[in-house]
Specification:
- This protein has two domains: about 5-230, 3-Layer(aba) Sandwich (Rossmann fold); about 235-315, no CATH class.
- It is built from eleven helices and twelve strands.
- It has helices at about 45-55, 80-90, 100-105, 110-120, 125-140, 145-150, 160-170, 190-205, 215-220, 240-245, 250-255, and strands at about 5-15, 20-30, 35-40, 65-70, 75, 95, 175-180, 210-215, 225-230, 235-240, 305-310, 315.
- The chain has an eight-stranded mixed β-sheet, with helices on both faces. Strands 2-1-4-5 form a four-stranded antiparallel β-sheet.
- Strand 9 (about 225-230) and strand 10 (about 235-240) form a beta hairpin.
- The radius of gyration is 21 Å and the shape is globular.
- The structure holds adenosine-5'-triphosphate, iron/sulfur cluster (SF4) and magnesium ion.
Protein backbone atom coordinates (compact mmCIF):
# COMPACT_ATOMS: atom_id res chain seq x y z
CA UNK A 1 0.00 0.00 0.00
CA UNK A 2 1.17 3.50 -0.85
CA UNK A 3 1.72 6.17 1.79
CA UNK A 4 -1.09 8.72 1.71
CA UNK A 5 -0.16 10.98 4.60
CA UNK A 6 3.06 11.29 6.56
CA UNK A 7 3.00 13.17 9.84
CA UNK A 8 6.51 14.08 11.02
CA UNK A 9 7.52 15.51 14.38
CA UNK A 10 4.21 17.34 14.78
CA UNK A 11 4.13 19.73 17.72
CA UNK A 12 1.02 21.72 18.63
CA UNK A 13 1.16 23.82 21.75
CA UNK A 14 -1.21 26.13 23.61
CA UNK A 15 0.27 29.27 25.10
CA UNK A 16 -1.29 31.23 27.90
CA UNK A 17 0.18 33.67 30.43
CA UNK A 18 1.04 31.00 32.97
CA UNK A 19 2.03 27.95 31.00
CA UNK A 20 2.57 26.12 27.72
CA UNK A 21 0.40 23.06 27.14
CA UNK A 22 2.22 20.68 24.81
CA UNK A 23 -0.98 19.10 23.48
CA UNK A 24 0.89 17.34 20.66
CA UNK A 25 4.58 16.90 21.35
CA UNK A 26 6.56 15.32 18.51
CA UNK A 27 4.14 12.94 16.83
CA UNK A 28 5.20 10.79 13.84
CA UNK A 29 2.97 8.40 11.91
CA UNK A 30 1.94 7.38 8.40
CA UNK A 31 -1.41 6.52 6.89
CA UNK A 32 -1.46 4.40 3.74
CA UNK A 33 -4.00 4.57 0.94
CA UNK A 34 -7.29 2.92 1.89
CA UNK A 35 -6.27 1.72 5.37
CA UNK A 36 -8.07 2.38 8.65
CA UNK A 37 -5.85 3.57 11.48
CA UNK A 38 -7.16 4.09 15.01
CA UNK A 39 -5.80 6.75 17.34
CA UNK A 40 -6.57 5.78 20.95
CA UNK A 41 -5.78 7.06 24.43
CA UNK A 42 -7.39 8.66 27.44
CA UNK A 43 -9.08 12.04 27.42
CA UNK A 44 -6.68 14.93 26.96
CA UNK A 45 -3.82 12.93 25.43
CA UNK A 46 -3.88 14.95 22.19
CA UNK A 47 -5.94 12.89 19.74
CA UNK A 48 -8.22 15.68 18.58
CA UNK A 49 -5.40 18.23 18.43
CA UNK A 50 -3.40 15.84 16.23
CA UNK A 51 -6.27 15.59 13.76
CA UNK A 52 -7.12 19.29 13.90
CA UNK A 53 -3.44 20.04 13.21
CA UNK A 54 -3.55 17.87 10.08
CA UNK A 55 -6.52 19.97 8.91
CA UNK A 56 -4.91 23.26 10.09
CA UNK A 57 -7.91 23.84 12.34
CA UNK A 58 -6.12 24.27 15.67
CA UNK A 59 -8.16 26.75 17.75
CA UNK A 60 -6.43 30.13 17.92
CA UNK A 61 -5.15 32.47 19.08
CA UNK A 62 -3.51 30.39 21.83
CA UNK A 63 -3.10 27.17 19.89
CA UNK A 64 -0.19 26.98 17.45
CA UNK A 65 1.52 24.31 15.38
CA UNK A 66 5.11 25.00 16.40
CA UNK A 67 6.97 22.30 14.45
CA UNK A 68 6.62 19.39 12.08
CA UNK A 69 5.35 18.42 8.65
CA UNK A 70 2.17 16.84 7.32
CA UNK A 71 3.11 15.52 3.90
CA UNK A 72 0.47 14.49 1.37
CA UNK A 73 2.46 13.44 -1.69
CA UNK A 74 5.00 16.21 -2.18
CA UNK A 75 2.80 18.83 -0.44
CA UNK A 76 3.39 19.88 3.16
CA UNK A 77 -0.13 20.76 4.32
CA UNK A 78 1.27 22.91 7.11
CA UNK A 79 2.81 25.25 4.52
CA UNK A 80 -0.44 25.80 2.58
CA UNK A 81 -2.36 29.08 2.70
CA UNK A 82 -5.90 29.13 4.12
CA UNK A 83 -7.29 29.25 0.53
CA UNK A 84 -5.23 26.26 -0.53
CA UNK A 85 -6.22 24.41 2.64
CA UNK A 86 -9.93 25.04 1.89
CA UNK A 87 -9.45 23.02 -1.30
CA UNK A 88 -7.95 20.15 0.69
CA UNK A 89 -10.67 20.15 3.37
CA UNK A 90 -13.78 18.31 2.25
CA UNK A 91 -12.11 17.41 -1.02
CA UNK A 92 -9.05 15.34 -0.19
CA UNK A 93 -9.48 15.10 3.59
CA UNK A 94 -12.86 15.19 5.32
CA UNK A 95 -13.67 15.18 8.99
CA UNK A 96 -16.64 14.08 11.09
CA UNK A 97 -17.12 14.73 14.80
CA UNK A 98 -18.87 13.23 17.80
CA UNK A 99 -21.93 15.47 17.78
CA UNK A 100 -23.16 16.11 14.24
CA UNK A 101 -25.55 18.84 15.43
CA UNK A 102 -22.57 21.11 16.14
CA UNK A 103 -21.32 20.72 12.56
CA UNK A 104 -24.69 20.98 10.86
CA UNK A 105 -26.28 24.37 10.39
CA UNK A 106 -29.64 24.32 12.25
CA UNK A 107 -31.30 26.89 9.98
CA UNK A 108 -30.52 25.17 6.66
CA UNK A 109 -32.21 22.02 5.39
CA UNK A 110 -30.18 18.85 5.20
CA UNK A 111 -30.41 19.01 1.39
CA UNK A 112 -29.13 22.59 1.17
CA UNK A 113 -26.09 21.70 3.26
CA UNK A 114 -25.12 18.72 1.15
CA UNK A 115 -25.79 20.63 -2.06
CA UNK A 116 -23.58 23.48 -0.81
CA UNK A 117 -20.66 21.11 -0.31
CA UNK A 118 -21.15 19.48 -3.70
CA UNK A 119 -21.49 22.74 -5.62
CA UNK A 120 -18.50 24.29 -3.80
CA UNK A 121 -16.09 21.46 -4.49
CA UNK A 122 -17.40 20.01 -7.72
CA UNK A 123 -18.81 23.17 -9.31
CA UNK A 124 -21.89 21.32 -10.57
CA UNK A 125 -25.16 22.91 -11.73
CA UNK A 126 -27.79 22.88 -9.00
CA UNK A 127 -30.02 20.28 -10.64
CA UNK A 128 -27.14 17.82 -10.86
CA UNK A 129 -26.09 18.62 -7.26
CA UNK A 130 -29.63 17.84 -6.00
CA UNK A 131 -29.52 14.50 -7.81
CA UNK A 132 -26.15 13.70 -6.27
CA UNK A 133 -27.33 14.73 -2.79
CA UNK A 134 -30.20 12.24 -3.02
CA UNK A 135 -27.85 9.53 -4.29
CA UNK A 136 -25.48 10.20 -1.40
CA UNK A 137 -28.25 10.00 1.19
CA UNK A 138 -29.35 6.71 -0.32
CA UNK A 139 -25.78 5.49 -0.22
CA UNK A 140 -25.50 6.15 3.54
CA UNK A 141 -28.73 4.25 4.15
CA UNK A 142 -31.15 7.12 4.71
CA UNK A 143 -34.66 6.05 3.73
CA UNK A 144 -36.93 8.42 1.79
CA UNK A 145 -33.99 10.60 0.82
CA UNK A 146 -36.17 12.77 -1.48
CA UNK A 147 -38.21 13.84 1.55
CA UNK A 148 -35.36 14.04 4.05
CA UNK A 149 -33.48 16.65 2.01
CA UNK A 150 -36.19 19.19 2.80
CA UNK A 151 -35.96 18.51 6.57
CA UNK A 152 -34.00 20.58 9.08
CA UNK A 153 -31.31 18.73 11.08
CA UNK A 154 -33.21 18.79 14.41
CA UNK A 155 -35.95 16.65 12.84
CA UNK A 156 -33.49 13.76 12.44
CA UNK A 157 -32.28 11.30 15.07
CA UNK A 158 -28.63 11.38 16.19
CA UNK A 159 -27.84 8.33 14.05
CA UNK A 160 -29.47 9.87 10.98
CA UNK A 161 -27.60 13.14 11.52
CA UNK A 162 -24.32 11.24 11.68
CA UNK A 163 -25.28 9.52 8.40
CA UNK A 164 -25.87 12.96 6.87
CA UNK A 165 -22.42 14.09 8.09
CA UNK A 166 -20.86 10.99 6.56
CA UNK A 167 -22.70 11.67 3.29
CA UNK A 168 -21.29 15.22 3.26
CA UNK A 169 -17.83 14.05 4.22
CA UNK A 170 -17.81 11.42 1.48
CA UNK A 171 -19.40 13.61 -1.19
CA UNK A 172 -16.10 14.34 -2.94
CA UNK A 173 -14.57 10.86 -2.53
CA UNK A 174 -11.90 12.06 -0.08
CA UNK A 175 -8.62 10.19 0.17
CA UNK A 176 -8.79 10.43 3.96
CA UNK A 177 -11.73 10.61 6.38
CA UNK A 178 -10.87 11.72 9.91
CA UNK A 179 -13.56 10.52 12.32
CA UNK A 180 -13.22 11.99 15.82
CA UNK A 181 -15.33 9.85 18.22
CA UNK A 182 -17.98 9.46 15.50
CA UNK A 183 -20.20 7.08 17.48
CA UNK A 184 -19.62 8.05 21.11
CA UNK A 185 -22.88 10.00 21.38
CA UNK A 186 -24.97 7.19 19.85
CA UNK A 187 -26.51 4.11 21.42
CA UNK A 188 -24.80 0.79 20.89
CA UNK A 189 -26.98 -0.58 18.06
CA UNK A 190 -26.74 2.65 16.09
CA UNK A 191 -22.98 2.78 16.75
CA UNK A 192 -22.57 -0.61 15.11
CA UNK A 193 -24.61 0.49 12.08
CA UNK A 194 -22.57 3.67 11.63
CA UNK A 195 -19.29 1.74 11.91
CA UNK A 196 -20.51 -0.81 9.34
CA UNK A 197 -21.41 2.04 7.06
CA UNK A 198 -17.99 3.65 7.40
CA UNK A 199 -16.30 0.33 6.70
CA UNK A 200 -18.43 -0.33 3.60
CA UNK A 201 -17.89 3.14 2.19
CA UNK A 202 -14.16 3.15 2.80
CA UNK A 203 -13.84 -0.19 1.00
CA UNK A 204 -16.01 0.92 -1.90
CA UNK A 205 -14.13 4.14 -2.63
CA UNK A 206 -10.77 3.21 -1.05
CA UNK A 207 -10.86 6.07 1.45
CA UNK A 208 -8.38 5.80 4.31
CA UNK A 209 -9.86 6.44 7.78
CA UNK A 210 -8.17 7.94 10.83
CA UNK A 211 -10.52 6.82 13.59
CA UNK A 212 -10.20 8.59 16.93
CA UNK A 213 -11.81 6.75 19.80
CA UNK A 214 -11.80 5.79 23.48
CA UNK A 215 -13.38 2.44 22.68
CA UNK A 216 -11.03 -0.41 21.94
CA UNK A 217 -14.15 -2.44 21.05
CA UNK A 218 -14.76 -0.09 18.13
CA UNK A 219 -11.13 -0.31 17.11
CA UNK A 220 -11.03 -4.09 16.87
CA UNK A 221 -14.02 -4.01 14.51
CA UNK A 222 -12.80 -1.39 12.13
CA UNK A 223 -9.08 -0.64 12.21
CA UNK A 224 -6.08 -2.41 10.77
CA UNK A 225 -3.51 -0.49 12.79
CA UNK A 226 -3.56 1.22 16.16
CA UNK A 227 -1.64 4.24 17.39
CA UNK A 228 -1.69 4.70 21.17
CA UNK A 229 -1.14 8.23 22.50
CA UNK A 230 -0.25 9.33 26.01
CA UNK A 231 0.36 12.89 27.20
CA UNK A 232 0.90 14.32 23.71
CA UNK A 233 3.14 11.54 22.42
CA UNK A 234 2.80 8.21 20.66
CA UNK A 235 3.74 5.39 23.03
CA UNK A 236 2.97 2.41 20.80
CA UNK A 237 2.07 1.65 17.18
CA UNK A 238 1.18 -1.78 15.82
CA UNK A 239 -1.35 -3.87 13.91
CA UNK A 240 -4.67 -4.51 15.67
CA UNK A 241 -3.74 -8.17 16.16
CA UNK A 242 -0.39 -7.32 17.72
CA UNK A 243 -1.92 -4.74 20.05
CA UNK A 244 -4.61 -7.11 21.29
CA UNK A 245 -2.49 -10.29 21.39
CA UNK A 246 0.76 -8.83 22.63
CA UNK A 247 0.58 -5.22 23.82
CA UNK A 248 4.09 -4.01 24.66
CA UNK A 249 3.78 -0.66 26.39
CA UNK A 250 2.53 -0.84 30.00
CA UNK A 251 -0.03 1.84 29.13
CA UNK A 252 -1.38 -0.19 26.19
CA UNK A 253 -1.49 -3.24 28.45
CA UNK A 254 -3.59 -1.24 30.92
CA UNK A 255 -5.95 -0.13 28.17
CA UNK A 256 -6.41 -3.70 26.89
CA UNK A 257 -7.03 -5.04 30.39
CA UNK A 258 -9.76 -2.47 30.91
CA UNK A 259 -11.84 -3.64 27.92
CA UNK A 260 -14.95 -5.48 29.19
CA UNK A 261 -14.87 -9.26 28.65
CA UNK A 262 -18.54 -9.75 27.89
CA UNK A 263 -18.74 -10.52 24.21
CA UNK A 264 -20.26 -7.84 22.07
CA UNK A 265 -20.21 -5.24 24.81
CA UNK A 266 -18.46 -2.04 23.87
CA UNK A 267 -17.22 -0.25 26.95
CA UNK A 268 -15.44 3.03 27.57
CA UNK A 269 -11.88 2.71 28.68
CA UNK A 270 -11.39 3.13 32.37
CA UNK A 271 -7.81 2.06 32.74
CA UNK A 272 -4.98 2.26 35.15
CA UNK A 273 -4.98 4.05 38.47
CA UNK A 274 -3.95 7.69 38.56
CA UNK A 275 -4.46 10.47 36.06
CA UNK A 276 -2.86 11.85 32.94
CA UNK A 277 -0.29 14.42 34.15
CA UNK A 278 -1.26 18.08 33.97
CA UNK A 279 1.25 20.40 32.24
CA UNK A 280 2.60 21.57 35.63
CA UNK A 281 3.18 18.02 36.80
CA UNK A 282 4.64 16.67 33.55
CA UNK A 283 7.34 14.20 34.67
CA UNK A 284 10.85 14.84 33.42
CA UNK A 285 11.49 11.18 32.60
CA UNK A 286 8.92 8.83 31.09
CA UNK A 287 5.56 10.63 31.13
CA UNK A 288 3.82 7.43 32.20
CA UNK A 289 6.24 6.65 35.07
CA UNK A 290 4.05 7.89 37.98
CA UNK A 291 1.35 5.40 36.94
CA UNK A 292 3.51 2.56 35.65
CA UNK A 293 3.78 -0.62 37.71
CA UNK A 294 7.01 -1.56 35.86
CA UNK A 295 8.80 1.77 36.43
CA UNK A 296 12.44 1.61 37.56
CA UNK A 297 15.14 4.21 38.31
CA UNK A 298 15.95 5.25 34.74
CA UNK A 299 12.25 5.87 33.97
CA UNK A 300 12.22 8.85 36.35
CA UNK A 301 15.39 10.42 34.91
CA UNK A 302 15.35 9.99 31.15
CA UNK A 303 12.67 10.26 28.50
CA UNK A 304 12.33 7.12 26.35
CA UNK A 305 12.19 7.53 22.55
CA UNK A 306 9.79 5.77 20.20
CA UNK A 307 11.66 2.74 18.91
CA UNK A 308 10.70 1.10 15.63
CA UNK A 309 11.69 -2.48 15.23
CA UNK A 310 13.58 -2.79 11.98
CA UNK A 311 11.52 -4.10 9.00
CA UNK A 312 8.40 -3.98 11.11
CA UNK A 313 5.62 -1.47 11.60
CA UNK A 314 5.72 -1.94 15.39
CA UNK A 315 7.06 0.82 17.56
CA UNK A 316 7.17 1.32 21.33
CA UNK A 317 8.35 4.07 23.69
CA UNK A 318 9.54 2.27 26.82
CA UNK A 319 12.84 1.38 28.50
CA UNK A 320 11.70 -2.22 28.93
CA UNK A 321 12.65 -2.76 25.29
CA UNK A 322 16.17 -2.70 23.95
CA UNK A 323 17.21 0.47 22.12
CA UNK A 324 19.25 -1.32 19.44
CA UNK A 325 17.03 -4.29 18.70
CA UNK A 326 13.65 -3.38 20.13
CA UNK A 327 13.64 -6.71 21.98
CA UNK A 328 12.48 -6.97 25.59
CA UNK A 329 15.46 -6.51 27.87
CA UNK A 330 13.93 -6.57 31.31
CA UNK A 331 12.56 -9.80 32.72
CA UNK A 332 9.56 -8.55 34.64
CA UNK A 333 7.04 -8.45 31.80
CA UNK A 334 5.32 -11.34 30.11
CA UNK A 335 5.64 -9.80 26.67
CA UNK A 336 8.30 -10.05 24.02
CA UNK A 337 8.93 -7.75 21.12
CA UNK A 338 10.27 -10.34 18.70
N1 LIG B 1 -8.15 25.74 23.68
C1 LIG B 1 -7.26 25.13 24.46
N2 LIG B 1 -6.44 25.83 25.32
C2 LIG B 1 -5.53 25.21 26.11
N3 LIG B 1 -5.33 23.88 26.09
C3 LIG B 1 -6.10 23.13 25.29
C4 LIG B 1 -7.10 23.71 24.43
N4 LIG B 1 -7.69 22.70 23.73
C5 LIG B 1 -7.11 21.57 24.14
N5 LIG B 1 -6.16 21.82 25.07
C6 LIG B 1 -5.31 20.84 25.75
O1 LIG B 1 -4.69 20.01 24.78
C7 LIG B 1 -4.58 18.69 25.26
C8 LIG B 1 -5.05 17.72 24.22
O2 LIG B 1 -6.41 17.92 23.96
P1 LIG B 1 -7.22 17.05 22.91
O3 LIG B 1 -8.53 17.73 22.72
O4 LIG B 1 -6.41 16.79 21.70
O5 LIG B 1 -7.41 15.67 23.69
P2 LIG B 1 -8.16 14.36 23.25
O6 LIG B 1 -7.17 13.26 23.27
O7 LIG B 1 -8.89 14.59 21.96
O8 LIG B 1 -9.21 14.16 24.44
P3 LIG B 1 -10.74 13.68 24.42
O9 LIG B 1 -10.66 12.19 24.38
O10 LIG B 1 -11.29 14.18 25.71
O11 LIG B 1 -11.41 14.26 23.22
C9 LIG B 1 -5.37 18.63 26.56
O12 LIG B 1 -4.47 18.59 27.62
C10 LIG B 1 -6.17 19.90 26.56
O13 LIG B 1 -6.32 20.39 27.88
S1 LIG C 1 9.75 3.61 30.35
FE1 LIG C 1 9.53 2.88 32.45
S2 LIG C 1 7.85 4.08 33.34
FE2 LIG C 1 7.78 4.35 31.12
S3 LIG C 1 6.33 2.83 30.45
FE3 LIG C 1 8.35 1.88 30.28
S4 LIG C 1 8.67 0.84 32.24
FE4 LIG C 1 6.94 2.23 32.52
MG1 LIG D 1 -10.90 14.68 21.44
Amino acid sequence: MKDLLKVKNLKTHFFDKKQTVKAVDGVDFDIRTGETVALVGESGCGKSMTSLSIMQLVPGPNGKIVDGEVMMGSKNLLKLTENEMCQIRGNEISMIFQEPMTSLNPVLTVGEQIIEVITYHKRLPRKEAVKQAIELLNMVGIPRAEEIITDFPHRLSGGMRQRVMIAMAMSCDPKLLIADEPTTALDVTIQAQILDLMRDLSRKVNTAILLITHDLGVVSELAERIIVMYAGQIVEQASVDDIFDNPLHPYTQGLIESVPDIEGEIGRLNPITGNVPTPEQMPSGCRFAPRCTHAFGRCFEEEPVLLSKRHNTRAVRCFLYDEETGVKNVTDTKNTYS
